[in-house]
Specification:
single chain, alpha+beta, 2 domains, 45% helix, rod-shaped
Amino acid sequence: MTEFEEKVIDLLETVNSKLDKLLNSGGTGGTSVISRAAKSGGGSVKPSAVVDKQEEEEKLEEAPPIEGRRVCPKCGGTDFKEESDKSKVLHQQGGLKIYAKKTICKNCGYEFPN
């Protein structure tokens, strides 16, 4: 190998060790992606694989999958109340107004857009 190739390999090993430190300190469990890629690919890891794994874990943390129930995007709560939205009149006939409904989270107060 030439001197340039040796420098490139040294730099790649340094970057790989720093990525390992970041993943281990974050506690995200992304080291399994690195270990699988190292076993199958000969030691090189695609950064996009690590980023994809981190994005998957963030999505799972943000919104827990609950089928058939509405989940608050802010706090993850499932307890809501419905109120009339006096700013949106749906129908008026004979002096009687029918208003739209708005859904409000009881935990954090987040209003769902309807």
